[in-house]
Design a protein that fits this description.
Blueprint: H1 13-36, H2 47-63, E1 73-79, E2 96-100, E3 104-105, E4 111-115, H3 122-126, E5 135-144, E6 147-155, H4 167-174, H5 190-196, E7 204-208, H6 214-228, H7 230-236, E8 238-242, H8 245-251, H9 254-257, E9 264-267, H10 268-271, H11 283-289, H12 293-303, E10 313-317, E11 320-324, H13 326-338, H14 343-364, H15 371-378, H16 381-390, H17 396-405, H18 407-414, H19 420-426, H20 442-455, E12 463-466, H21 474-481, E13 488-493, H22 507-514, E14 520-524, E15 526-527, H23 532-538, H24 542-545, E16 553-554, E17 561-566, H25 572-584, E18 590-594, H26 599-608, E19 626-630, E20 639-645, H27 647-652, H28 657-668, E21 671-679
Parallel strand pairs: 2-4, 7-13, 7-14, 8-9, 8-12, 12-13, 15-16, 17-21, 18-19, 18-20, 20-21
Antiparallel strand pairs: 1-2, 1-5, 3-4, 5-6, 10-11
Helix pairs in contact: 1-2, 5-6, 6-7, 12-18, 12-20, 13-14, 14-15, 17-18, 17-20, 20-21, 21-22
This protein binds adenosine-5'-triphosphate.
């Protein structure tokens, strides 16, 4: 707890710390002013450079903003022995470091605040009584708004000091939630820290129950990697992938508050948006199109147009004719087919190979042709015509359209891979007249993406964070995997929350599809969100939805409010609204979660009752703290209080009971402080 020693003015530690805070803020202001005053007119030779530099400076100015309600530092470490910090200059003595969101230095360049990601900060998260890591004192600071109001000390090597649970940490965890997701830099837990600071070269997969901090860990990991490998990742790029736009809006503030403004965000659908999606597949067809076997079908289909030559190529140059015989052309083509290179690259290599064969003949005839001659021969009309016939260009969308509309073509490519029934299942009932009028589904877009990659290689980013991964199909994993083929990934998910017919059953398999079979799987089990009683209630579903998983624990001390209210059918809407009103008497946000089919009726009822609300992903404010959440969008989100309307309808909204119960499990685990379940239909037996 914060201990306020007797108020001798000169020695009050809180005053001293406040003074350091004021000095640090002044130093940050000076850093910002210095950056703002930079005059780049003299140093840039041309306008392109000037533009790049100006935008870099603008980014830096933004990153140097002093956010009034985010404390500049949240902790302090006093070391026993001075620490050599390399490029992070140490304080005067090298003993004491203030840990904060970003690095702040004074006019002499000495550090006032050290970035939480610096090596010297790590013991703040990892030091313990068992392993103090040279730390004499760990101090945590408590803030109200921007004002420093408390501190709490641990003397890690003092055998007489009792081990206590940090009250400030607990307060941070129990804080009511409002608005979008926040960073957790002040309270990252040791097992989370290990994942956050994992090596860039390593792909890690995190399995964790609801509210165990997977999303938080993934975002902090990107921030850490950008700090530790800034240049490399600035070149290659980083990307956070989430399930939908409202989720991405919910998490989009976290990285900017950590000073990272450059990380891109996307949904899987956006990654593969080669065509407009306007159709929906049935569950069986979607599952088949998402099956990894489709990769083999596509691989064959892309090469299906390659025709072995039956005529020689004859090149006329001046008075001479050079002839490459059929058998040699066949050899060239077969060699290209056997090699693991992209279709378009092989197609570009082919005219050069043919030209090379011509050059060999020229040399044998005593000529001395150089590279220019080879290029000219490669562009010779006879060679070009032959290449076009042998290795025709492939349009990925056209190819997929043909597969889905031409039964004979599909049968040929899927021979031994898909059964006749499976082929029938994915064929379009009514083939479009042209590829342009095709109505594509989400799964079709993924197939087109795979075909694109078979034709020419997809560029790889440096690091990709894949959140809510459990819902991806094998083909979607492949689409993500090719975007980090030479980089690494952080894969986050919970098997119990998989709500697609093709949801991940095993992480080992999923990592195989991602192209990272060697990645290790870490498990997070400490829950930061859901109150104990609520997680215990939701966990009754686990035997039915993911028997291999154990229950997440809750580290929240507040017991949380939990109630189940059975009502008569005609009272359902009114009772649900009453429960919302009751929830809104508390501080923080309220989420009303309901089956998608129930949302229009509830929206009307809310409007009739004059209760304003927002949609998921929209920001709540003091006047409107209620969000109406269709169950299908609840994943990854959280609200202080949750009112869950009619669980049976949530289950029935899904194509099969297991998916329905998983959807219900997601809905039951969104609450931070309290959950009220209102139902007219009997609850699913698994909850009883
Ligand atoms: N170390 C921590 N200190 C304080 N709060 C934390 C910590 N770790 C996680 N949290 C908070 O717990 C809540 C749940 O975290 P998060 O959303 O990352 O969990 P999740 O595992 O992704 O959940 P879900 O499975 O529902 O998607 C968030 O409000 C997050 O800020």
């Amino acid at each position: 707890m914060s201990t306020r020693p007797s108020p001798t003015p000169v020695q009050d530690p809180l005053e001293t710390e406040r003074a350091h805070l004021a000095d640090s803020r002044a130093a940050l202001r000076a850093m910002r002013e210095h950056t703002e005053s930079l005059d780049i007119r003299d140093v840039t030779a041309n306008w392109v450079n000037a533009e790049v530099l100006a935008s870099e400076i603008e980014q830096r100015i933004k990153a140097l903003a002093d956010l009034a309600d985010t404390p500049l530092f949240f902790g302090r470490l006093d070391y026993h022995r001075a620490v050599a910090t390399g490029q992070d200059a140490e304080d005067e003595h090298g003993f004491r470091f203030y840990i904060g969101r970003r690095h702040v230095h004074d006019a002499q360049g000495d550090p006032m605040v050290i970035d939480w990601r610096a090596p010297v900060s790590q013991p703040f998260y990892q030091a313990s009584r068992k392993d103090p890591k040279n730390v004499e004192l760990r101090r945590r600071f408590g803030y109200d708004g921007g004002a420093l109001t408390a501190y709490e000390d641990e003397h890690l090597s003092d055998p007489d000091e009792e081990e206590t649970v940090s009250a400030l940490l607990q307060r941070e965890i129990e804080k009511p939630r409002v608005g979008p997701m926040r960073d957790i830099v002040a309270t990252i837990q040791p097992e989370q820290d290990e994942i956050v600071r994992g090596a860039l070269s390593e792909t890690v997969c995190v399995q964790g129950g609801p509210g165990t901090g997977k999303t938080a860990v993934g975002l902090h990991r990107v921030a850490y990697l950008l700090y530790a490998h800034r240049e490399r990742l600035a070149r290659s790029g980083t990307l956070v992938i989430g399930p939908n736009r409202s989720f991405l809006r919910y998490i989009e503030q976290v990285l900017p508050t950590l000073g990272e403004l450059e990380v891109k965000q996307a949904t899987v659908d956006e990654l593969v948006a080669h065509v407009e999606v306007s159709a929906e597949d049935g569950a069986t067809a979607a599952a088949l199109k998402g099956d990894a076997r489709m990769a083999e079908v596509l691989r064959r289909a892309v090469r299906a147009g390659v025709t072995l030559p039956t005529e020689p190529v004859v090149v006329v140059r001046g008075s001479r004719r050079w002839r490459v015989p059929v058998h040699e052309l066949v050899e060239i083509v077969e060699e290209l087919l056997s090699r693991d290179i992209r279709y378009a690259a092989a197609g570009e290599a082919l005219p050069q190979r043919v030209a090379h064969a011509v050059l060999v003949r020229m040399e044998q005839a005593g000529e001395a042709p150089d590279d220019r001659v080879q290029n000219a021969v490669a562009r010779n009309p006879a060679v070009k015509a032959a290449v076009k016939a042998i290795w025709p260009p492939v349009n990925p969308a056209k190819l997929v359209a043909r597969l889905l509309s031409d039964p004979a073509f599909l049968a040929e490519q899927a021979e031994g891979v898909l059964t006749a029934e499976e082929q029938a299942e994915i064929l379009w009932a009514k083939p479009p007249r042209s590829v342009r009028s095709a109505r594509w589904s989400r799964a079709d877009a993924v197939l087109i993406d795979e075909a694109h990659d078979l034709v020419s290689r997809t560029g790889s980013l440096g690091h990709v964070v894949l959140d809510e991964a459990q819902d991806l199909s094998p083909m979607q994993y492949r689409a993500v995997g090719r975007r980090c083929s030479t980089g690494s990934a952080t894969v986050l998910g919970d098997i119990a929350q998989g709500t697609t017919p093709w949801a991940t059953g095993s992480w080992a398999e999923a990592l195989g599809h991602l192209g990272k079979p060697g990645a290790h799987v870490e498990e997070l089990t400490q829950g930061f969100r859901v109150p104990r009683e609520v997680i215990a209630y939701a966990s009754r579903l686990l035997p039915a939805i993911a028997p291999q998983l154990s229950e997440a624990t809750s580290i929240r001390e507040a017991p949380g409010a939990f109630a189940v209210q059975p009502v008569d059918a005609e009272r359902l809407d009114a009772a649900t609204l009453d429960a919302c009103r009751a929830a809104l008497t508390h501080e923080g946000s309220t989420g009303l979660i309901a089956a998608d089919a129930r949302v229009p009726a509830l929206r009307e009822a809310l409007a009739a009752a004059g209760m304003t609300h927002v949609e998921p992903g929209q920001e709540t404010d003091a006047a409107t703290r209620l969000t109406l959440v269709p169950a299908s969008l609840a994943k990854g989100l959280e609200y202080d209080y949750v009112v869950l309307d009619e669980p049976a309808a949530v289950v029935d909204g899904e194509p099969d009971p297991r998916t329905g119960l998983r959807r219900l499990y997601v809905a039951l685990t969104r609450a931070v402080s309290g959950l009220t379940v209102v139902h007219a239909t009997p609850l699913p037996a698994e909850l009883a």
